[in-house]
Amino acid sequence: MRSAEARFDYTAAVMQATENAHAGRHPNHQRHNAHAAPAPAPAAPIPNPPAAQQDVINFQQEAEKQQWQQLQREAQYVERQEAERGAVVQLQAQQAQRQAAEEWQCV
């Protein structure tokens, strides 16, 4: 969760710095940027983007890995259930055949 927050903080800081720089270069645009969120006071230092981005990538990869493992477990569970159902159906069919054969012999 920390990685996502760091990425958000970095993105927000970059966007705010861009807007502030843009407004500073173009005084007429300050009016247009009035809707923008005010800069934090004092401005927080921008984290090292590559490290923050790597944290996000690592977090996403771990989440994808865990999701894949969960899907694999679910697929194996479904396969086992299907195999068990198939075995039950086969056993029931064999019992029905035996019962039919016994009834046929009794007739």
UniProtKB/TrEMBL annotation:
Region feature Disordered, mapped onto this chain: 17-53
Composition bias type Pro residues, residue spans: 39-50
Record field: compositional bias (Basic residues): 23-34
Listed name of the protein: Uncharacterized protein
Higher taxonomy: Eukaryota, Fungi, Dikarya, Basidiomycota, Agaricomycotina
